[in-house]
Structure formats: structure tokens, C-alpha cells
Fold:
Amino acid sequence: MAKYIVGITGASGSVYGVRVVEELLKLENEVYLVLTDNGKDVLEYELDMDFNKWIEHLRKQRGKLILCNRNDMFSSIASGSFKTDGMVIVPCSMGTLSKLSNGITDNLLIRAADVMIKEKRNLVLVPRETPLNSIHLKNMLFLSNLNVTILPPMPAFYHRPKTLDEMVNSTVGRILRSLHIENQLYHEWNGKNQ
Ligand SMILES: Cc1cc2nc3c(=O)[nH]c(=O)nc-3n(C[C@H](O)[C@H](O)[C@H](O)COP(=O)(O)O)c2cc1C
Structure:
């Protein structure tokens, strides 16, 4: 069983975080889930769902879910000696992006991401904001130069998506691929006539 950390913050696009967690569990991974306070509030608001019921549902899935408290710096994921296969922050708010790029590890989610960078492990950010100002862009460039993958949820249209689900899935598929997980959720471009 591979181990992944998923962080969900208070940017719009909670659906991406929810779908990533569900796919990772479906593929029988161990998922360490950590949300900021705003991450939980926005998720409940945008998806009109009860957080506790969602967690109950996830616990019945094939993989293993470990829900981490954002204030618990004694958690295993706060330490570099605990090895994981990758981490994704999805969606990633500009606030969390900024704290991470400045080394402000004042919650478990950011501390876990900071650990991924210091241990040179795979970290994927799915930042969501528009338009982007120079502070956002500077922070993304800084983290990209540290080998952090910056993967904004920008839908492609060349596979002609027909539903919201298809559009969400194509981003979820790209996120999984960035975590080195092969999947069929997104469409690879193989040339116009192939
Ligand atoms: C409904 C809603 C949508 C939001 N969407 C975004 C967004 O897309 N991007 C962003 O950076 N912040 C967004 N915010 C603001 C963040 O939640 C806020 O900056 C918060 O302090 C982020 O904290 P966190 O990173 O600890 O979750 C949104 C807030 C609300 C209530």
C-alpha cells in the first residue's frame, strides 16, 4: 500500500480534493488527509455536504484513510522520518501557497508540505485563484524552482468534455499522474488523426 498525503485548503474547487481522495482510496492507497479550517468550511459549502458523513463513507472504501488534525504537530506526517510516496494540496489557496513559500509552518498541512520539500519528495500544488497577482506568481515560481509541481486546475477542451464530471476527472487524472499513478481519468493527446 502506497502512502499519500492530501491537503485541502479554503480555495474554491473542493471537488478536486474530494475526487483525489476518493480515487486514491479506490486504488487501495493509504491516505493521510488534512484540512485547514477554511478548507473544511468551503468544502461543506461548495459541495453542500456533511463533512463527517463523507469521512464515514471514505472509511468504508478499499484503501485506508487517516484523518489528521491540522493542529496536531505530533502527527507522523509532521516528520521527515515518516516516509510517504507523495503529497498534493488540492485545492491550494493563495494564503497557504504564500505561507509555504515563506516557510511559515503554522499548521500541520503546511508543515507536512514543508517536510516534502526538505526531504526532496514529490509535492504537487493545485493552486486556484483568478486573476493571479504578482505575489501569487512569484510564490509559484519560487516553489516550482524547488521542484514542486504547480498544477492549476485548467480544464482542456480537446477531448470535448460533455459533463462537469468529465472536466473534473481530467484534472484529477493529471494530479494522479503527477503523483506517478497511472490512470484512465484524463485523455492523452496522441495527435489529431491517431
Ligand atoms: C467560498 C470561498 C471561496 C474561496 N475561494 C478562494 C480561492 O479560489 N482561492 C483563494 O486563494 N482563496 C479563496 N478563498 C479565501 C480563502 O478561504 C482564505 O484566504 C483563507 O484564509 C485560506 O486559508 P487556508 O489556506 O488556511 O485554507 C475563498 C473563500 C471562500 C469562503
